[in-house]
């Protein structure tokens, strides 16, 4: 799963990364820094596994006030 | 004889300021007792302090793992029964993650760790944590944190803002340095009152906050059934 700072939440880390990339000569904008959590989960099917991970995100892995999350499943 | 109220200080793995908090509370006439993070039941206390530090390494997000410790669950029960809870720095982060206080604390806007005395404006002097202050009074208390940028929820009641930075050191929204729960029995703040209880430490203003807490705890020890509504909202 991918956790990102929500739109509108100041991300100084992203800004610092953007400045560093500009320093290297890359023309970039809108850098945001999030995090990746890789997990193995058991589930009868993809839907059940996804529902489980969604609960994990809501309860612990992301703070819904300031972070959004995206789940990617690989069988 | 005036009874000494008993104030517990929780020690998590990674707590750093627990012993300073015990010392400072004793200095303002509390019977300060340590509480171990693994204890599912609190001792008989009139108030609880969650100290600064880096509980459980602050993995994932600050305070996110400490929320699951048995002592935190006991503190949540205590707060729900109206118990007085003060969270300092990492303790504030734990209280936010545990849902006892609104909002969240993120990386400082500057990306730098800040460690210096800051001036705070007391927005509310009618809470159990600020009764020794005057409304609008400026007090000097040190901060030391890398993740102190407070982001409130969109619906934060302004009456819950107890302390504001005079000069914002970390990018906190609306200069917020300390917020209380709706009932007013839980306060979280990033500055460290326990490091400012003696002029030799640069300021004794932190003692105003801790002595307010101890006084409120003493009143509760004397009349535990009273004071269901501790603060009156402005709005």
Spans of at least 5 consecutive residues with low confidence of chain B: none
Q: Tell the overall outline of chain A.
A: elongated
- For this structure, the CATH topology of chain A is Mth169, Chain: A
Domain count of chain B: 1
Helix content of chain B: 10-25%
Taking all Cα atoms into account, the compactness measure Rg of chain A is 16 Å
Going across the biggest sheet of chain B, name each strand in turn: 2-1-3-4-11-10-9-6-7
CATH architecture of chain B: 3-Layer(aba) Sandwich
List strands and helices in order, with pairings:
The complex is a heterodimer of chains A (75) and B (235).
Chain A: E1 2-5, H1 12-23, E2 35-36, H2 46-61, E3 67-70
Chain B: E1 6-11, H1 18-27, E2 31-36, E3 47-50, H2 70-80, E4 84-88, H3 90-97, E5 104-106, E6 114-122, E7 138-145, E8 149-151, E9 161-165, E10 176-180, E11 186-189, H4 206-222
Parallel strand pairs in B: 1-2, 1-3, 3-4, 4-11
Antiparallel strand pairs in B: 5-8, 6-7, 6-9, 9-10, 10-11
Report on this structure:
The complex is a heterodimer of chains A (75) and B (235). Helices cover 37% and strands 13% of the residues of chain A. With 75 residues, chain A is an alpha+beta fold. The longest helix of chain A has 16 residues, at 46-61. The two termini of chain A are 14 Å apart. The relative contact order of chain A is 0.28. The model of chain A has no long low-confidence stretch (mean pLDDT 94). Chain B has 235 residues and is an alpha/beta fold. At the A-B interface, α1 of A face loops of B.
């Amino acid at each position: 799963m991918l956790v990102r700072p929500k739109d509108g939440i100041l991300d100084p880390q992203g800004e610092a990364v953007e400045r560093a990339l500009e320093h290297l000569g890359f023309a970039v904008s809108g850098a945001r820094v999030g995090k990746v959590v890789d997990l193995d989960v058991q589930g009868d099917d993809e839907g059940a596994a996804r529902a489980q991970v969604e609960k994990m995100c809501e309860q612990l892995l992301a703070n819904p006030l300031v972070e959004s999350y995206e789940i990617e499943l690989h069988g | 004889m005036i009874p000494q109220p008993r104030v517990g200080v929780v020690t998590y793995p990674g707590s750093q300021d627990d012993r300073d908090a015990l010392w400072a509370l004793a200095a303002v006439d509390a019977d300060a007792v340590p509480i171990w993070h693994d204890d599912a039941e609190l001792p008989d206390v009139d108030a609880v302090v969650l100290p600064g530090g880096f509980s459980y390494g602050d993995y994932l997000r600050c305070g996110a793992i400490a929320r699951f410790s048995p002592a935190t669950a006991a503190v949540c029960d205590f707060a729900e029964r109206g118990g007085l809870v003060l969270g300092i720095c990492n303790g504030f982060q734990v209280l936010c993650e545990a849902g006892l206080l609104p909002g969240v604390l993120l990386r400082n806007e500057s990306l730098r760790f800040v460690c210096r005395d800051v001036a705070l404006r007391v927005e509310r002097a009618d809470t159990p944590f600020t009764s020794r202050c005057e409304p609008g009074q400026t007090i000097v208390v040190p901060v030391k944190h890398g993740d102190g940028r407070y982001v409130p929820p969109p619906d934060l009641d302004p009456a819950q803002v107890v302390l504001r930075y005079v000069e914002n050191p970390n990018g906190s929204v609306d200069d917020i340095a300390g917020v209380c729960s709706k009932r007013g029995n839980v306060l979280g703040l990033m500055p460290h009152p326990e490091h400012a209880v003696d002029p030799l430490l640069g300021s004794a203003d932190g003692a105003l906050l801790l002595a307010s807490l101890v006084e409120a705890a003493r009143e509760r020890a004397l009349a535990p059934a009273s004071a269901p509504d501790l603060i009156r909202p402005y709005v």
